[in-house]
Automatic annotation (TrEMBL):
This is Ninjurin-2-like. It comes from Priapulus caudatus. It is found in: Membrane. Belongs to the ninjurin family. It is a multi-pass membrane protein. PANTHER family: NINJURIN C, ISOFORM D (PTHR12316:SF17), NINJURIN-RELATED (PTHR12316).
């Protein structure tokens, strides 16, 4: 099975393996969930900012081109809708995170 004759599986260092008796979530001895969540939230925020900057850049290019472009109104509508949904998503996630943080802290601490 594991190659060592004991029937156990040998897990190389650095590979996530389930801890016996714990939930089925893979963990290592030094795995911190809060650190992972923090990195995930920061990277998601940076992606949100990048998409918003891209939308602003596209709107600026469209305005410079003007309505003489054949797809001006269609592209302006699509980029505006994308920007609106991105801002709505960001504001709702901020409001949701703020309302959840107090309940989360009292339950898990």
């Amino acid at each position: 099975m594991g190659g060592n004759g004991t029937g156990s599986i040998v897990v190389p260092p650095g590979v996530l393996a389930p801890i016996p008796g714990a939930n089925s979530f893979p963990q290592t001895a030094n795995f911190e969930l809060s650190h992972y969540v923090t990195k995930k939230v920061v990277s998601q925020g940076m992606l949100d900012v990048a998409l918003l900057m891209s939308n602003v850049s596209q709107i600026k290019a469209l305005i410079d081109t003007g309505p003489k472009h054949g797809y001006f109104y269609f592209l302006m509508t699509m980029v505006s809708i994308s920007s609106f949904y991105r801002l709505a998503s960001a504001s709702s996630s901020c409001c949701w995170a703020g309302s959840r943080s107090s309940a989360w802290n009292t339950r898990w601490r």
